[in-house]
Amino acid sequence: MPRDAADEDRLQRFAAIWSRAVYPATTTSMTRAEFEDYLVPLAARLSEALRAQPFDAGPAADIGAALVDAHCTDPEALPLILSVIDAYLVLYCPPGDGLSAEESRSRCTRLQHHVAAGFARALRERTRSEQEAITRAALGARAEVEQALHASEARFRAVFEGAAVGIGIADIDGQVLEVNDALTRMFGGMEHLASGSRTTDWGHPEDSPEVWGLYRELVRGERDHYSIEKPYARGDGSVLWTTLTVSLLRDADGTPKYQIALMEDITERRRLHERLRYEARHDALTGLPNRTMFFEHLDRALAGGPDGAGGDRVGLCYLDIDGFKAVNDSLGHAVGDELLVAVAERLRACATAPGELVARLGGDEFVGLVTGATASADVTALARRMLRALADPVHLEGRELSVRASIGVVGGKTGTAGSRGAAEVLRSADITMYRAKAAGGNRYELADAACDARAIARHSLTNCLPAALDNGEFFIEYQPLVRLGDGVVRGAEALVRWLHPVHGVLGPDQFIPLAESTGLIVPLGRWVLQEAARQARAWKHAEGAGPDAGPLRVNVNLSPAQLCYPGLVTETVEVLADAGLDPAALCLEVTENALIGADEDALRPLRQLADLGVDIALDDFGTGYSNLSYLRRLPVSTLKLDRSFTRGMQCSPADPVDVKIVEGIVSLAHTLDLSVTVEGVETGSQAECLRVLGCDTAQGWYYARPGPPERLHTLSLVDAAS
Amino acid sequence: MERPTWAPQGIDLSVPSVSRIYDYYLGGSHNFEADRETGRRAIAAFPGLPKLMQVNRAFMRRTVRYAVSEGVNQFLDIGSGIPTFGNVHEIAQAADPAARVVYVDHDPVAVAHSRAVLDGDDQSAIVAADLRAPREILGSAEVGRLLDLDRPVALLLVAVLHFVEDQDDPWKALAVLRDALAPGSLLVLTHASTEGGPRKPEDGEGVQGVYREVGSPLLMRSREEVIRFFDGFELVDPGLVSMPHWRPDAADTPEDADEDPVVFSGFAGVGRKQ
Question: What is the pTM of this model?
Answer without folding.
Answer: 0.54
